[in-house]
Amino acid sequence: MSLIRQTLKHFARINGILAKRLLSLDNANVQNRYNNSTSTDDPSQFPGAKAPFVSNLKLIEHTDYDAIPIYRVMDSDGYISDDSQDPQLSKEVVQKMFNDMVQLNTMDKILYESQRQGRISFYMTNFGEEASHIGSAAALEMRDLIYGQYREAGVLVWRGFRIDQFIDQCYGNCDDDGRGKQMPVHYGSKELNFVTISSPLSTQMPQAVGAAYAMKLRPNNDACVVCYFGEGAASEGDAHAAFNFAATLQCPVIMFCRNNGFAISTPSHEQYKGDGIAARAHGYGMATIRVDGTDVFAVYNAMKLARKYVLRENKPVVFEAMAYRVGHHSTSDDSTAYRSADEIEVWNSKEHPLSKLKSYMVRKGWFNENDEKEFVKDVRKKVLKQINVSEKKLKPNWKEMFEGVYSEIPAHLKEQMKELESHINTHRNHYPVKNFQE
């Protein structure tokens, strides 16, 4: 009997060893799938996340993942790094890209000084970010809907927004499409499919996702939405809500982040600790792409790819353009208080979008120094002439501040308008009523 017991114990011990080895092999296989496999035969059944089981406990750090690479076509000297990535744009298109960036740059310089002279109340320049505007706009179709933040004037330049329209808006006169109801640089154009800019950060982001969802529901939709925002705006709650809605509703929207390194006086390393803004797409379940925002061809190629993807898949893309804000955040900022002049100079010379494209054009034989000087001279003349015209135009009738929100003015606004009219009539000598339309 003891022999039988010993035999049974022996087999039990062998079975235990086999069982442990099989369990170990199974755990190794699961771990291997976790680390290396993209198989969809997932053992977990949780509705909240699909992932493999593992038996080793590990705290996963953000540093465990490689940073998302930055796609570029041109290097700092304007050379094409890989000929297969050259978009092979015609001379006419490249010349328009360059001229539009030069026009934006020239207009910015004059209007910035206009604010410093007290002629307009506020201004924001686009220095260093011209390529992200022009490259992305060139890759889109006019039917695509744009939601801007307040540093995308180049998109409007590409689409045909005129110098007089820019300046009339900044001066808030009677010919301003916004009828003087917005701060300067808060442009909008129904004709050009560019939604009027709002001052509060990131409010345009959930709105853009909603517009994209509406487009998705249209039969045979062939247009997408592009929503521009800065990396600072990405810290707002609206940004996270927009990301989540875009992903879960699977909307044809390109969430275009201009990561220029600074949210007014706050550098990016104080804004977030993760891998920029592009990495957030993974957390929300979206496709992503990161490009050199100073390389107009890289932005162009990437936007073409992103647009094709969102229309084909009816899914969003987070697009991060890495750049450097050469100018001050706005006329309310002095960037020399938080960064060195030497640092700015690097990005305003060799790393500047115009410098790279100019070098490319020189090698192609498409650049003429005298033509550029004449073009800048012509733009300056037009801008200065228009400023003299725009600042002499009357402001819209003050009653228009009560109009344009409701289809019919409600009773409480009518009462307020009546009270203001009485006040102005009583104290007419204290108000510049002659500057306003009757």
UniProtKB/TrEMBL annotation:
Entry EC no(s): 1.2.4.4
Cofactor(s) this protein cannot do without: thiamine diphosphate
Stretches that traverse the bilayer: none
Keywords recorded for this protein, A-Z: Oxidoreductase, Thiamine pyrophosphate, Transit peptide
Residue ranges annotated for the Dehydrogenase E1 component domain, each copy included: 101-397
Pfam families: E1_dh
Catalysed reaction, written as an equation: N(6)-[(R)-lipoyl]-L-lysyl-[protein] + 3-methyl-2-oxobutanoate + H(+) = N(6)-[(R)-S(8)-2-methylpropanoyldihydrolipoyl]-L-lysyl-[protein] + CO2
Signal sequence annotation: none
GO terms under cellular component: mitochondrial matrix
GO biological process terms on file: branched-chain amino acid catabolic process
GO terms, molecular function: branched-chain 2-oxo acid dehydrogenase activity; metal ion binding
Gene3D superfamilies tied to this protein: 3.40.50.970
InterPro entries found in the cross-reference section: Alpha-ketoacid_DH_E1_comp, DH_E1, THDP-binding
Physiological role: The branched-chain alpha-keto dehydrogenase complex catalyzes the overall conversion of alpha-keto acids to acyl-CoA and CO(2). It contains multiple copies of three enzymatic components: branched-chain alpha-keto acid decarboxylase (E1), lipoamide acyltransferase (E2) and lipoamide dehydrogenase (E3).
Family: Belongs to the BCKDHA family.
Protein name, entry field: 2-oxoisovalerate dehydrogenase subunit alpha
Lineage of producing organism: Eukaryota, Metazoa, Ecdysozoa, Arthropoda, Hexapoda
Gene behind the chain: LOC105229559
